[in-house]
């Protein structure tokens, strides 16, 4: 090291990464990137308080949950493992949302972000979950998203390039999120690229071979050629 790095926060957000094979992590590592998968607050498996701290005093999406990811990056830079000038964030679903939030932060740690199946409008998602979910998962999701930062309202502050990726038939985070965000990016004249995965749904285990091929090749090409001044 220090290595170029990709921060890859998990989706959910109320799940956790277990130590084991990660197809996306391995794909990025094969291409020369250190991959950091933070267990930010809200992740399950670290006790009730840690999980609840993501929503108990108002939704922490874009606030404390985002600080956790950035603190991890700073630690890895301090340890000499990560090159401070070559860091990107890539995430899917909640992870994609985190990538959009990262793009508009003012202490900017990243050279670019890749946001897949991202929640761009928190109110849109809250309304959707109120209709679609039941029980405990409805309570945690609605409470977390309710007060969290909404990327659609932060587009004017975006200060790094964005690659936006979305499945055309996403049933969990509808395509409307990408469409609204794209419109806002264009309006504010922000540097971005967009890839739509034709016929792709939300959950990554539903992505077909052709979707993965398009996803991975566009990600690597973006990181190498369009991320920061000289590519990652």
TrEMBL record:
Residues 26-227 form the Peptidase S9 prolyl oligopeptidase catalytic domain. GO terms for biological process: proteolysis. InterPro entries: AB_hydrolase_fold, Peptidase_S9_cat. Keywords: Hydrolase. GO terms for molecular function: serine-type endopeptidase activity. This is Prolyl oligopeptidase family protein. It comes from hydrothermal vent metagenome.
């Amino acid at each position: 090291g220090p290595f170029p790095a990709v921060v890859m926060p998990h989706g959910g957000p109320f799940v956790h990464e277990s130590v084991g094979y990660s197809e996306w992590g391995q794909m990025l590592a094969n291409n020369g990137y250190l991959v950091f998968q933070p267990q930010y607050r809200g992740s399950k498996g670290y006790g009730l308080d840690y999980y609840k701290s993501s929503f108990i005093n108002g939704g922490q999406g874009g606030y404390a949950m985002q600080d956790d990811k950035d603190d991890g990056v700073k630690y890895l830079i301090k340890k000499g493992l990560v090159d401070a000038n070559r860091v990107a964030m890539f995430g899917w679903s909640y992870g994609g949302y985190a990538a959009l939030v990262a793009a508009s932060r003012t202490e900017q740690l990243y050279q670019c972000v890749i946001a897949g199946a991202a929640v761009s409008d928190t109110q849109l998602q809250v309304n959707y979950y109120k209709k679609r979910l039941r029980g405990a998962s409805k309570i945690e999701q609605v409470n977390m998203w309710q007060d969290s930062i909404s990327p659609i309202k932060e587009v004017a502050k975006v200060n790094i390039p964005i690659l936006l990726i979305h499945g055309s038939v996403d049933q969990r985070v509808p395509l409307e999120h990408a469409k609204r965000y794209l419109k806002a990016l264009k309006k504010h004249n922000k540097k971005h690229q967009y890839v739509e995965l034709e016929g792709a749904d939300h959950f990554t285990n539903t992505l077909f071979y052709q979707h993965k091929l398009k996803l991975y090749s566009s990600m690597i090409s973006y990181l190498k050629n369009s991320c920061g001044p000289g590519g990652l």
